Every structure is written in structure tokens, then in C-alpha cells.
Amino acid sequence: MPVIRVQNAVESLPHGSRVEAVCTDPGALNDIPAWSRINGHRLIETRTDDGEYIIVVEVVHGEAS
Amino acid sequence: MGEQRKAVALISGGLDSLLAARVIQAQGIHVEGINFFTGFCVEGHTHAIRKRDQKKEKRNNALHVAEQLGIKLHIVDIVEEYKQVLTHPKHGYGANLNPCLDCKIFMVRKAHEWVRAKGFDFIITGEVVGQRPMSQRKETLPIVSGESGANDLLLRPLCAKHLPLTLPEREGWVDRERLYDFSGRSRKPQMALAAAFGIEDYAQPAGGCCFLTDEQYAVKLTDLWRARGSKQYEMDDIMLLKVGRHLRPASRFKVIIAREEGEGRFMQGYRKQYPHLETVSHGGPFALIDGDVDEADVELVARLVARYSQGRNADQVEMAFTDLAGQTRSLRVRPMQPGEIPREWLI
User: Fold this and answer.
1) How many Cβ pairs within 8 Å bridge chains A and B?
2) Which of B83, B160, B230, B279 is the most exposed place for a label (fewest CB within 10 A)?
3) Does position A20 have pLDDT exceeding 70, yes or no?
4) Inter-chain residue contact A30 with B266, CB threshold 8 Å
5) pLDDT value at position B23?
6) How high does pLDDT run on average in chain A?
7) What is the average pLDDT value for chain B, to the nearest integer?
8) If pLDDT is split at 50, 70 and 90, which confidence band does A33 have?
């Protein structure tokens, strides 16, 4: 599931890094932004490109609620 | 001021787990959520990929619940470990391939491990005595507590008054008088409690949250195991069982044909892992082949897929077949006629 892969990637990345998720499941367009809000990370961009859904998240450590 | 106590709530995305967490939050406990991904969760995924389900919100309800509660949600991938639960359930299956009791024990055990690793104090679930025929009966709730190893660290806020005291209650971290005595299958008490908390937007408890309770899914999974000669599966297998029309012309391979555009797009994500077919001369579905095929099989599959294309009544349909090496070639085939597709192929 895309949101789990983003979660696992973010855990090991330093503050300020960016993760770009390229997905075929349109549900990721909601899941990853929701996960980012819950955990205090910053959603940079969501877009659809040729049937793929691309979500970019910036890692925020230490500010999460 | 006493020490801030911390609980982890198993969050499925349904109303019960939402309320259980909310009840404990209301007592000043710091609550975080945990959600287990088995690969069989209905949540979000299939709703999203099937175009006909577009009216349903494309959201993962566990994330939505966490957001409503204002809590963190830890999503834990248990796909590999869950295989043992599914293939060898100590307490057996429910009506289909749902090992509900073993599943609950396993998830509470994992939550207990998490609690110990993270320094949390106890575990919350939304279980209600008498609500589910397999895993939420008066006889089985103690089995979940005991076999998971959580014992009295497991608190069920919605039916706690029917159950023995737990550690959080004995220690006074939680006031038992402010817990509940729900029982049975009625949803009215939960709906009333939701209203009391001002919660209006929650997942409707219809159809279950797990594909393993679905009869048609269970038939497809049983077919997969029979064809492979053992109860084995990989993540890709169980994801693809959720989509498409499955037909097995021979024991060594089956064909998965997209039923609509959303499924086709999702299945194209697997195009590098499976041989596949596309309709070239007409509008038609994308199809994957799972298993070993020879030249004759490819032609047969092409005719089968052409049957589901807009060229079904044409003399010939042009198909493109791509093998595992990525080599694509064209075939011109006569679409199968309805009488040519044996019923036993349909899974």
C-alpha cells in the first residue's frame, strides 16, 4: 500500500527530505495527504500524470503533533 | 499531577474502534492508533480502483478516524507474518476463509509487542461482547486477552462493564464508571454514543472490512491454493484477487481480465511482472496471465479476452501479447463465442 511505503521511507529520512510516491491506486491521493497531516509532515504536491498518481511529501521531524 | 498514561488503540476505521479510542481520550489518556495491514483489507483500496465505486469516498477510513480523533496512526505491515495466521488458524475459519479469532489474537499480540517497545501502558480495542459470531463472544474475549499475552493490559471500553477489571481500571488510570456495557449486535448504543460525542461522519458497518469474509474472494483464493498445490500466496496474488474477472482455462495458468477502466489501470501496474494482452483493433480490456503458457495457450487467451472486447462480434480482433521479457507481438484472432467458454473456467 503506497501510504505504508511512504511511512517507512520517511522514518529513515532526515528533516527536510522529500519523498515522491508514484502510485497506480488513486486512493493514495487521499491516504498520503491524510497520513502527512496526522503525522505532521508537509504535503508539497499531488498530481496525476498519464494514469499515475504522484504525491510529494516533505519530511518534518520534531514538529509533529 | 500523576504520570501521563498512554494507550494504543487498534483502529480499523469502523465506528467501534473510533468510539473506544474517543472514550479513553475523554479520560485524559494520551491515545495513539495502530492499524494492521494484512493485504486483505477492503478499506480504500478497491473502492478506489473500481470506477463503478466512484460514489464511495476514496479514503482509508483508519486514517480518517485518526484525523477525526487528532491522534497519530501507526500503520504496520503484517503481510508476511499474517500468512501463518491465514493458512493455519488454530481456531479455524468462519463462514469463508476468515480466521477472525486467530486474527484478533494476532493483532492484539502485535499491539502488545508495540506497547512494550514504545513504553505505552495499555491497549484499547473496540470489541463488543456478543457482536460478532466468531471473535466477539463472551467465551472468546478472554481467549483473545490470554493467547495474545496482553492479559489485563487489554481494555475494551465499550463493553468493559461486562468484563473483569483490567490493569488500567485497577490502577485508577481509567474510571470504570465512565466505561460502557454494550453487548449484542445492535448498533444503536454506538450510534447514540457517537451522537453524544458529536461524531457524525463514520464508516457504515456494512459488508465487513476484510476480503476473507467475502465468499467470492474465498473461492478465488481457494482456487489459487489448489492450482499451486499448497496454501502459498504473495502480496501480488492477493491484490489481484480483488480485481478483474478470473478465468482458469487450465490448471497451470489463469487469466485476469479487467472489468472496467479503473481496474485496467491498476492492473497495468503489474505489466512487468505478468505476461499480458491488450486489444489493439477495438476498445477492450487489459488482461494479465498468471502462470505458464505456450503458443496455443496465448492464442486461446487472446480469443478469450477478445470475447470481452468491443470486437466480440467481429470476425477478427487484433491483440497485442507481451511476454515476461517485454517482447510484444501482434495476433489476429476470432473472438470466442459465449458457448465456447466452459462454465468451469469462471472462478
Assistant:
1) 65
2) B230
3) yes
4) no
5) 98
6) 89
7) 91
8) very high
Distance CA B11, CA A58 (A): 26
Which of A22, A30, A32 should one mutate to test binding to chain B, selecting the residue with the greatest count of B CBs within 10 A?
A: A30
Cα B253 to Cα B261: distance, rounded to the nearest angstrom: 24
Whether the per-residue pLDDT at B208 is higher than 70: the answer is no
Q: Searching chain A, which residue's CA lies closest to the CA of residue B44?
A: A27
A39 lies in some domain: yes
**Chain B partners within 8 Å of A51 (Cβ):** 265, 268
- How near does any CA of chain B get to the CA of A38, in Å? 6
Domain boundaries, chain B: 6-211, 243-345
Q: Is the pLDDT of residue A63 over 60?
A: no
Residue A63 within a domain = no
Domain at B6-211: CATH architecture: 3-Layer(aba) Sandwich (3.40)
Q: Amino acid identity, residue B224?
A: L
Write down the pLDDT at residue A65.
43
Domain that holds residue A6: 2-58
Please tell me the distance from the alpha carbon of residue A64 to that of residue A43, in angstroms, as a whole number: 13
- What is the pLDDT at residue B41? 80
**Chain B CA closest to residue A37:** B67
Per DSSP, helices labelled H in chain B are 15-25, 45-49, 61-69, 79-87, 100-118, 141-148, 167-170, 188-196, 215-228, 235-240, 261-268, 295-307
A12 found inside a domain: yes
Chain B residues near any Cβ of chain A (below 8 Å):
37, 44-45, 47-49, 57-60, 63-64, 66-67, 70-73, 75, 77, 262, 265-266, 268-269
Share of chain B above pLDDT 70, in %: 93
Pairing outcome for strands B6-10 and B122-124: parallel
Residue A65 lies in a domain: no
pLDDT above 50: residue B207: no
Q: How many domains does one find in chain A? A: 1
